[in-house]
Amino acid sequence: MSTHVLIFPLPMQGPVNCVLKLAELLCISGISVTVLNTVYIQRNLLRHTNVLSRFSRYPNFRFQTISDGLPDDHPRSTARYNEVFEGMKTVTEPAFRDMMVSGCFSCKSDSPVTVVIPDGLFSFALDVAEEIQIPLIYFETMSPCTLWTYLCLPKLIGAGEVPFNGIDLDVLIKNVPGTETFLRRRDLPGFYRYDNLTNPVMQIIMNEARQVPRAHGVILNTFEALDASILDQIRSLCPNIYCIGPLHTLLKSRLPKSTQHNVSNSLWTENRDCLSWLDTQLPKSVVYVSIGSMATMTVDQFVEIWHGLVNSGYPFLLVKRPGSVTGDYDESKVPGNIVGETNRRGFITTWVPQEEVLAHSAFGGFLTHSRWNSTVESMVEGVPMICWPLKVDQHVNSRFVSEVWKIGIDIKETCDRFVVEKAVKDVLDVRRSEFFRSTKVVAEAGAKSVSENGSSWMDLNRLVEDLKSNDFVCK
């Protein structure tokens, strides 16, 4: 029976972006692939990208959709993402099981799925895979350092380190091996501060911590040289790890140059006008600012960041995604000097092709919310970061950026114009040579990993061979 892989991403921009890159890499390798998106995600993907025409060159690829259980007009924002999980638990989980056991992906179908690659948060998928006796490999699109804190959650709870209140946030964490000297309470995901262990988010992470080590393997968007010490820790629980990152550059290394352009997996309309503006700027002089596809900030936070950028004296590209600023925002009340300076040396837009933008020579810094995709994309281009983490994995990532990889500044919970101004000046001027050296080392290591016979190149080959092996056959 031929290999048929089903990839099932978390319905968010970052995971969907990663999954489509993995899908293309597997298609290139001759494996049949189906990507299972929620109806909502698929609709936005088709609206804003050329993904259908791009994948039409692979006869071994197809999309399939599944409901997330929510009405069409639901915003599916970060603030209401618990409702997405509730909808998926009620509707998506049973529908997925039906598809796998007796439906379009079952052994009774014309093209049965032989391997499942779901997001690590989909703990229910492992139970289904075991029921029908096919292998499952989790795809963790978060950082290895965050995954390790998830896998350590039972140990943290047992030791009484989690949950904790909002007091003494600089206390070091003792039960995440390998991080004892630098990881603090404030660097853990925000939901570790909840008082109630029955909180739905905590339960989801606890299920992930239990299920992931039981899988046949774990795919990570990282490279060995970057995360070696943490990967050694993860292997103590999950011995079969495939490190195939930086995923977007690994894909480029396997694609002909003629097909590398205009590749977008965006769920938003991208404004490319900023690229022409960047062409007019000096090398390494511009600060790029984006908090991603789902995060939000208050009006006050947005204004503080805006003031800090203007006061720094440097040019800036500021992404203000629709819905990213909550509250009563009235641009007519913004001081005239801020608007004037922005018109002179700033560019504000709704959404941009981030991989392409970060690759532009004009950038000297990236003020980011520190989600893993953004962090990796910045690393690849050697752009130092100013980390302003907001949710989930971002607090852990920002700590590693500043204290382990030393490729940026972590400003954590602070959102103050003076802090932003100082951070911009540090990255683009005061500590510029220091960050240039450290980011260059990381970028070169990332490039080496995806070159022929590099660590990620070889791990992808191993993944492909494992997927094609006789052990991965529908029984």
Produce a short descriptive summary.
The protein has 475 residues and is of the alpha/beta class. The protein contains 19 helices and 15 strands. It is 44% helix and 13% strand.
Report on the architecture of this protein.
With 475 residues, this protein is α/β, with parallel strands linked by helices. 44% of the residues lie in helices and 13% in strands. The protein has a 6-stranded parallel beta sheet, sandwiched between helices. The protein has a 4-stranded parallel beta sheet with strand order 3-2-1-4. Strands 5-6-7 form a 3-stranded parallel beta sheet. Strand 6 (217-220), helix 9 and strand 7 form a beta-alpha-beta unit. The longest helix is centred in the N-terminal third of the chain and has 21 residues, at 81-101. It is globular.
Note poorly predicted spans: none
Shape: globular
Major sheet, described briefly? 6 strands, parallel
Number of strands: 15
Total helical elements: 19
Mean pLDDT score, rounded? Answer: 93
What topology, given as strand order, has the largest sheet? 12-10-8-13-14-15
Structural class: alpha/beta
Helicity level, as a percent range?
40-55%
Distance between the termini: 10 Å
Radius of gyration: 22 Å
GO biological process, one term: glycoside biosynthetic process
Organism: Lactuca virosa
Pfam family, one: UDPGT
Protein name: Glycosyltransferase
